[in-house]
Amino acid sequence: MSKSVLIMVTNADTIAGNKDMPTGVWLSQAAEPYIAFQSAGFKVDIASPKGGTVPIDPNSVEGGNDDKFTEVTKLLQNTLKMKDVVYENYDAIFLAGGHGAMFDFPGNADIQNIMAFFKDDGRIISGVCHGPAAFADAKTKDGKYLVDGVKLTAFTNAEEDSAKLSEYMPFMLQTKLEENGAGFVKGEAGEEHVVSSGNFVTGQNPASSQAVADAVVNRLK
C-alpha cells in the first residue's frame, strides 16, 4: 500500500503584519520535499491553516522561479484547509518553513492536534527551518511538551540574527524549543544539517530541505 505524506505550509504573508516585509512559505522547502515524496511513489497533499492560496516568500524565488518547481507553485494556489484534513490517513507530516510559519503555526489547534496524534501513534513528524515553529509550546495528551526530550534542529538564533530579523520574530525559535525541553542540535549556519530522533526528522535551514525529505523517504520505505 502506498504511503501518504501531508506537507503543511503557512498562510502568513507578512512579517509581524508589516506590509513592507512580505513573507510566506520558502518555495524550495515545500517543493523539494513534494518532488522527493512523489518520486518515491507516495501520495502527497499540501495543507495550510486557512486553506486556499499560500503566499510564497519573494526572497525564495529571486533570480527566477526554477521550472522544476512549477507544479508545486500551482498547487500552492489551492491548498487544503488543515481542519478539513483526515490526518489519520497520512504516514508522515512535513512542516515547511519560511518566516510566515513563525506567525500562524505556533498555537494552531489543528496542527497541534495532528502532531499530538502522530507522536502518540509513532508516525513521522518532520520539518525544516521555521517549520518547527509549530512545536512551540505544543503539548501531547499527557500535558508534556511535544518536543520534551527530543533531539532536533531548526533555524538557529545565529541564523536569525544573521538575517537581521530577530527583532521582528514573536520569539526566537531555538530558544523556545530549548525552553520546551528539546535537545537542540546546531549545525553550521547556512549548511545542510539534519537531526533524527525517535519519530522526529528535522532540518536546520533551506539547505536542509532535500536531506530531510530523503530521510523521511528512507524511513517510510
UniProtKB/TrEMBL annotation:
<keyword id="KW-0378">Hydrolase</keyword>
<dbReference type="GO" id="GO:0019172">
    <property type="term" value="F:glyoxalase III activity"/>
</dbReference>
<keyword id="KW-0346">Stress response</keyword>
<feature type="domain" description="DJ-1/PfpI">
    <location>
        <begin position="31"/>
        <end position="217"/>
    </location>
</feature>
<dbReference type="GO" id="GO:0019243">
    <property type="term" value="P:methylglyoxal catabolic process to D-lactate via S-lactoyl-glutathione"/>
</dbReference>
<dbReference type="Pfam" id="PF01965">
    <property type="entry name" value="DJ-1_PfpI"/>
</dbReference>
<dbReference type="InterPro" id="IPR029062">
    <property type="entry name" value="Class_I_gatase-like"/>
</dbReference>
<dbReference type="GO" id="GO:0006508">
    <property type="term" value="P:proteolysis"/>
</dbReference>
<dbReference type="GO" id="GO:0008233">
    <property type="term" value="F:peptidase activity"/>
</dbReference>
<keyword id="KW-0456">Lyase</keyword>
<protein>
    <submittedName>
        <fullName>Intracellular protease/amidase</fullName>
    </submittedName>
</protein>
<keyword id="KW-0645">Protease</keyword>
<comment type="similarity">
    <text>Belongs to the peptidase C56 family. HSP31-like subfamily.</text>
</comment>
<dbReference type="InterPro" id="IPR002818">
    <property type="entry name" value="DJ-1/PfpI"/>
</dbReference>
<dbReference type="InterPro" id="IPR050325">
    <property type="entry name" value="Prot/Nucl_acid_deglycase"/>
</dbReference>
<dbReference type="GO" id="GO:0005737">
    <property type="term" value="C:cytoplasm"/>
</dbReference>
